[in-house]
Specification:
This protein is mainly alpha-helical and 179 residues long. Helices cover 65% and strands 6% of the residues. The protein contains eight helices and two strands, in the order ααααααββαα. Strands 1-2 form a two-stranded antiparallel ribbon. The longest helix is centred in the middle third of the chain and has 25 residues, at 87-111. The chain is flat, with a radius of gyration of 19 Å.
């Protein structure tokens, strides 16, 4: 996937799953790190090692788990980060969501290619649900549809948090009367 596709789908997924814009933003920032870290580790030989060591989910998931366990498994809150009371828990939670952005990056790459599973040097798990565009940095029609579907489902999950059954029925009735 392109960086744009990773950022949008990761942000939407985490926002829909947690309802926290801070968690979604931290995941947004971490969502392209597995690709950008290849430049640091491999330099000009980046393409030779693409989707190998940096796309092995185990270290990213272990780091996320460590950060979440230090945070007490909370979702970060802006109020705690601003006023400073117990803010260290929220900082650890932000770091955990940053690493979850890395994990989601790898899962998203598995939809359009292969990534390592048990052996970090061999890409052996994945599927080709859609193909990438020929031009670098350009989103293919399949990737656009994938990102729109992920974002739409996540938006629905985010909106469901604000409705109870009664308020949702009242919303539909009001909407129907105003059409």
């Amino acid at each position: 996937m392109t960086g744009k596709g990773h950022r949008i789908s990761t942000f939407a997924f985490v926002l829909g799953a947690t309802g926290s814009p801070i968690a979604a933003t931290m995941s947004f920032f971490g969502s392209t790190f597995p690709d950008s870290s290849e430049y640091v580790f491999f330099g000009k030989r980046r393409n030779r090692y693409h989707r190998r060591y940096t796309h092995w989910f185990v270290p990213w998931l272990a780091l996320a788990w460590a950060c979440f366990s230090r945070s007490g498994w909370i979702v970060p809150r802006l109020s705690a980060l601003v006023d400073g009371r117990n803010a260290h828990y929220d900082v650890w939670a932000c770091a955990g969501f940053w690493f979850m952005g890395c994990v989601l990056h790898i899962l998203e790459d598995a939809w359009c290619g292969t990534v390592p599973f048990l052996r970090p040097w061999k890409r052996d798990v994945g599927m080709h649900v859609f193909h990438m565009a020929k031009k670098a940095g350009e989103m293919s029609a399949g990737e656009v549809n994938f990102v729109l579907c992920c974002s739409g489902i996540s938006f629905i999950a985010f909106m469901v948090r604000f409705f109870t059954v009664d308020s949702f029925i009242q919303f539909i009735i009001t909407l129907w009367r105003n059409i």
